Amino acid sequence: TVVSTQSTGDTFCPVGNFVPASEIDPFNTELLLKVNNELKQHGNSKDMIFNVPSLLEYINRHITLLPGDLVLTGTPEGVGPMTHGDQIYAAIPNVTEATFQVQ
Questions:
Q1: According to the model, what pLDDT value does residue 87 have?
Q2: pTM of the predicted model, to two decimals?
Q3: Are 94 and 21 within 8 A, CB to CB?
């Protein structure tokens, strides 16, 4: 077992609203993230090395995925440090968005 604290901590993984699969195209979904209103990440699921259905199939071979399970697949280019008080805006444009403050 490998345990890492590089990307963990209180308030580390905020999650927005549930979005039904029928509302997005797993092969072409735009994602964006702003820190203090500055665009830091802008990507699309079509640019992923492994597409979403392939990832889910692979994971499901090793563990049982159930409705409501959350799968974290990584992040588009542009990852960087955040500090206490930063304002974060994450979105799937025209589908859902979330805003929060780093604590």
A1: 95
A2: 0.79
A3: no
Give dist(CA 75, CA 8) in Å, integer.
15
- AA letter at 42: H
In DSSP terms, 34 is beta-bridged to 39, 89
Length of the chain (residues): 103
HEC profile for 5-67? CCCCCCCCCCCCCCCCHHHCCCCCCEEEEEECCEEEEEEEHHHCCCCHHHHHHHHHHHCCCCC
Give the β-pairing of 87-92 and 30-35.
Answer: antiparallel
- Count of beta carbons in the 10 Å neighbourhood of residue 20: 7
Q: Tokens at residue 76, please? A: 């588009």
